[in-house]
Amino acid sequence: MQVMFGVLGPVTAWDERGRSVALKGPRHRAVLARLVLAKGRVVPVARLVDDLWADPPTDGVGAVRTFVAALRRALEPERPPRTPARLLVTEGPGYALRAHPGAVDARRFESLVETAAIAPAPRAATDLDEALALWRGPAYAEYADESWVRAERGRLLELRLHAVEAQAEARLALGRADRAVPDLDAHVSEHPWREDAWRLLALALYRTGRQGDALAVLRRARGLLVSQLGVDPGPALRGLEQDMLRQAPHLDPARSASATAPARGPQDAAGQVWARAAAAYDRSVPADARARLESTAGLLRSLAVTGGSGLEEARRHRVAAVEAAEALGDPELTARIIGRYDVPAVWTRVDDPEQTARILAATERTLRRLPAEGHDAARAALLATIGVESRGGGTPAATARARAREAAAEAERIARHLDDPALLAHALNSQYMQAFARTGLAPRRATTGAELVALATRHDLPSYEILGHLVRVQALGALGEFTAADTHAGAADRLAERHEVPLVGVFTRWYRALRGAADPETPLEAAEQGFREAAKALDGAGMPGLEQGLLPLALLCLRVARALPVPDALLGEDWGPYEPWARPLLLSTAGPRAEAMRSLAEVPDPPQDLLAEALWCLLGRAALSLDEPHIMRRARQHLAPASAEIAGAGSGVLTAGPVAGHLAALDEALNSLGEKES
Q1: Is the C or the N end of the chain the one with fewer CB within 10 Å?
Q2: Burial 560-576 (b: 16+ CB within 10 A, else e)
Q3: For the residues of 6-65, what is the DSSP string, one character each?
Q4: 3-state secondary structure of 609
């Protein structure tokens, strides 16, 4: 029986005919809701007990097991007695709901909203109509007061509000302003602080010929914002009112299309504008003005995304700009200089550790010197910088990792409180960089990527929109959802072309090499050639943190994924930072056994980053080859949380095959060794 689950309203389930499944009492439904919320991950029984009761009964564990047994009978009524459940499964210390993402209305809703964000207006309108029709009431309606669901309810509500506004945008683009007005009118009544909703309603009214009503809406919005919040409308609302008063042609798409003249010599004109503006700035702003430092920081941000020497120069001059600001003794200026370089980051190994250490030290000093009151936005930007720059690629002390995660979480909290989209995007990038505390966190990173795409699309933050798509490529690749990952890779490429961000092509080219390698139908030679072609894109890209050792690591992981012998030639490759974790496996097949055993015994845990799962798989395979049970157990322990993922695919650049296969091999070997010992 195919079961569908609904949490966008009261928690419920339906069979394949659309009939409600009898779920018994509210605690049964609470267990189901909690498992749906976990998105396929295991929820320990102890956690379920704590979530179900403020004061758990003595036999809370037994009660939960009773609820689960009843849910299993309801969800799989035709399952023969004493056969394992296939939907609500027991795993480790708890339970997991193994429902297909499309079988859960909340996940279907998210998928439709994501697709609409990169689709043409007709498809976007259709997808958003379908997405919003899934809502039957407030998400997880009967559990609104439960702490375990509060954050998810808030996230889904925000996504729904965005979907309503995106639906209106699509209708306006299709010339259906009359259809947009009623829904937007209700929307602003329920959520009067959303300026974009007021803008869309006024524009829809204007395009239906109701100019007076449109202006009245803008004035009503201003009155509410000023009287209730004490703030003036933002530039979008102010500009729209002025445009309406002068009946600007661009407000009517038909009129603006006919009135638009082709630009003359755009490249020449751009060069001339740049040269004249730079000359005027040089004449007008004194050489020792602090404004020059702030302008430089903005320029370096743009320079960093050009790649190659531009990225290298941006890193170098960034350090100089920050240290120059510090030398002036102005922590507020220094905070602005550091915060303006919010360049999106998607790779977890830094390119220049020495420069990064200097930036981190300056950021911490600036945080300590910044006045305690009135600088929340600057403080959040500094905290986000710590989270982004304190990324993987090494084995930092536990205290440093804890500091970075704490900083990222605090940056996100402040950014959400301030309702600052650009700051929130920076903070989400910081949270993404800290989402590697253990293996198996691809679902969490997928959620962050989805929020980045939605947020950046809504607020016109193209660099973060690209980041969100790349994060989704990585996370969905780890989960084996390659069709969806393909869509995000294509969206990233289109945005990169439109906004002239060439570095994006490096990541999407590597992803497509991974995509080919992950397909068992791709011949080995073709898969290897795909990686070699992708490696060529790294030449001159200015990203040593990505480039060093990546190609041999990808080729080795490909061999491991396909259970093929490792060629001796790989021993002589430059493994860069990955040498400690590749060497034991290489020596186990082509070197002295004693040296291989010594190398394996001395190896540290892999860094907590995008390649952790792949490196643990290499260690596990080396331990299997050398019959070393201690490393087998370590590898198994660290890989277990990622049992549903494809090792290495979360990096977006390589694959070592399904983690489940590695775990099975380790379990078989450990069981065999246990039998021998007994």
Answers
A1: C
A2: bbeeeebeeebbebebb
A3: E-SSS-EEE-TTSPBP---SHHHHHHHHHHHHTTT--EEHHHHHHHH-SS--TTHHHHHH
A4: coil
Token pair, residue 17, equals: 């005919």
607 φ, ψ to 5°?
-60, 155
DSSP 616-664: HHHHHHHHHHHT-HHHHHHHHHHHGGGTTSEETGGGTS---EEHHHHHH
Contact between 419 and 334 under an 8 Å Cβ cutoff? The reply is: no
Q: Angle between the 482-499 and 504-518 helix axes, to the nearest 10 degrees?
A: 160
Domain CATH number, residue 28: 1.10.10.10
CATH of the domain at 413: 1.25.40.10
Same domain, 488 and 608: no
Same domain, yes or no, for 566 and 667?
yes
Q: Give the whole-angstrom CA distance, residue 346 versus residue 474.
A: 9
Mean pLDDT computed over 223-229? 83
* DSSP code per residue over 164-211: HHHHHHHHHHTT-HHHHHHHHHHHHHH-TT-HHHHHHHHHHHHHTT-H
Higher local confidence (pLDDT), 256 or 459: 459
- What is the spatial distance between Cα 196 and Cα 168, in angstroms, rounded to a whole number? 11
Segments forming the whole domain that contains residue 202: 175-249
What is the share, in percent, of the chain residues with pLDDT greater than 90? 62
**Residue 644 CA from chain centroid, whole number:** 19
Last residue of a domain, one of 460, 495, 514: 514
The pair phi, psi for residue 160, each rounded to 5°, is -65, -45
Angle between helices 421-433 and 376-389 (to 10 degrees): 30
Question: What digits encode the pLDDT tens for the residues 103-155?
Answer: 999 999 998 998 888 788 888 999 999 999 999 999 999 998 898 999 899 99
What confidence tens digit (pLDDT) does each residue in 399-439 have? 888 999 999 999 999 999 999 999 999 999 999 999 999 99
Q: Which helix or strand (DSSP H or E) is residue 88 part of?
A: strand 88-91
Residue type, 306: T
Grouping H, G, I as helix, E, B as strand and the rest as coil, residue 397 is: coil
Please check whether residue 233 lies inside any domain of the structure. Answer: yes
Cβ–Cβ < 8 Å for 488, 445: no
Mean per-residue pLDDT for 68-76?
A: 91
Please check whether residues 222 and 292 belong to one and the same domain: no
pLDDT-derived band at 224, boundaries 50, 70, 90: confident
What is d(CA 163, CA 173) in angstroms, rounded to the nearest whole number?
Answer: 15
In a domain, 453, yes or no: yes
Q: Considering its fold, how many domains does the chain have in total?
A: 4
Q: Are 548 and 538 in contact (CB under 8 A)?
A: no
| Residue 255 CB-half CA count within 13 A | 7
Q: Are residues 415 and 319 in the same domain?
A: yes
Tell me the chain's radius of gyration from C-alpha atoms.
Answer: 27
Strand arrangement of the beta sheet that strand 88-91 belongs to: 43-44, 94-97, 88-91
CB 182 within 8 A of CB 168: no
Structure confidence at residue 288 as a pLDDT band (50, 70, 90):
low
Paired with 14 in beta bridges are: 4, 20
In this structure, is residue 115 part of a structural domain? no
Cα distances from 299 to residues 106, 278, 283, 503, in angstroms, run: 41, 12, 18, 17
Tally the C-alpha atoms within 13 A of residue 535's C-alpha that lie toward its C-beta: 16
Examine residue 139 and state whether it is found in any structural domain, yes or no. Answer: no
Residue 111 CB neighbours (<10 A): 17
pLDDT of residue 307: 64
